[in-house]
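I hope you will forgive my troubling you with a question about protein structure. The matter concerns a single protein, recorded as an amino acid sequence and a row of backbone structure tokens. Please examine both parts with care and let me know of anything in them that strikes you as inconsistent. Here, with my thanks, is the record as I have it:
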Amino acid sequence: MIRSVYHLLQETANVHKDQVAAQFYQKNGWAKMTWGELEKQVHAVASGLVALGVKPQDRVAVLAKTKIEWVIVDLAILAAGGITVPIYHSSALDDIVFILNDSGSKYLFVDDEDALLKCREARLQTPLLEKIICINPVTLRQEGNEIAWREIFDESMKHYQTLMERVESMNAEDLATLVYTSGTTGEPKGAMLTHDNLLYEARAIEKFGIVTSADTQLLFLPLAHVFAKVLQIAWLKTAHTMVFAQSIEKIIDNMKEVRPTIMGSVPRIYEKVYAKVVADIESTSGVKGLIGRWALKQGETAARKQKLNRVPGGFKWTLAQNLVFAKIGEKLHALFGGRLRFFISGGAPLSPDIAYFFKHAGVTILEGYGLTETSAATCVNLPSHNRIGTVGKPVPGTELQIAPDGEVLIRGRGVFKGYWNRPDDTKACLTPDGWFRTGDIGVLDQAGFLRITDRKKEIIVNSGGKKIAPQKVENLIKSKVPLIGHVVVYGEGRPYLVALIVLDENNLKDWAKKRRIKKDYVQLVAHPMLKRTIEKEIKDVNASLASFEQIKKFTILDHDFVIGQQLTPTLKVKRNVCYEQYKDILEALYSKK
């Protein structure tokens, strides 16, 4: 009986022993690991953890980049009866210290010198931490609290019987992981997810039948995030091949090399691809450029009709599809490796305009929805039932309802047990009859598709009492203005909205090159011609918004947002951090005449 994630690995490895489970990059190219080899590696590390002293329900933290070793360590922790505590590789020292202390982690895996150096500092403030285990070869201190992970293999086979006893005693309701919220607002909280939460997600995804053992998935998302966690559990259940990307910077290169059939990503990646394609068309001269820009306008018209459930048609739309969108599609499919069946988008809302653009080019993006507290996959669109602008229908076994104030409530086996050491926070978000209060505002259409309109706490109420969903405005701006990479709307209690704007560096360089402007990034941001261009683009966007939703003033920042500072590891803007960090700039926008 499958009572744990490790039991799931055992079952999959038994059935698909010689099938390729994973690919990962090494010095000589892409290496492969079968399911049988994966189970063997996990078993060795798990036995080593028992030898090291890991007890059932001990917390073991992992601070590493996404790689095959991360998964081996995670599964080994679970096999030894422990609880995995993921920490983002990009985490600041204060966050690392907080998570280690809050979780009471005794053991910590790190993967490189940078992580080790941060954790050496953290160890001075984490009295419960006993061992730091280093995955990759690094220079270790000799005090005895740092060891190489290969060292734990040495005594592993002596503890085979103990390990098997722990595996057999596992219960589906045992905690599997504490996933700490990335903290776009406030202090991180550890969401307690059980083996049953994760096994439920695995079975629900399998029921859809959209992923099979013949698929190849490329994974680059941080495994400290619940979105990547659910992609991992789906992999274990469906026994397809998981390819671990070299880095986020090499995603496109890796896609061309390994030719994935499916891939999960966050909206920022689609936004960057879209912005690049549109910027190239906008900068193309002559007849080709005119036709391209005309086709983009036809695409926008088609998207507006589709949002109203109307089917676009006519000679102009057919011509635009054949002359331009078909060619865009050919380039994108080649860029993505030529075998991609669909993308899965999660972690943040995806602009419908961008989703329609990809659809018109023949690229399918299936948007889904979930939270750390609901084990990620709560709703998802399917290839056969993909309604752009929504996050799909609930996965089998999950219930949804909309509260009187518009908040989305969720109930089912995917809902977590609560927050670690925070009974008051748990009580505040879980109703007595098991409904989780998501904090998201949404609506269900007649067919049962969920549309998220905004975060409950992020709704802006201006001085006139009008309620504004900032994500709606921000996504519209990013979809219409390729020069803009990030935008943060502000206006709580104010007479009008203002915005902080961060430019897309690559598109900015193309813009400057076309105009033969030789300036560095900071100089370009201050260039009068650029400001006039952005002002015009914002004015055009404002024309499609209600008067109270329009951006009246803005500031273009002379630097990009950074992961761990203004951005979460999944590239979401930390709104409250930006409000605090740039409060003087925002205030100045209201004092300027």
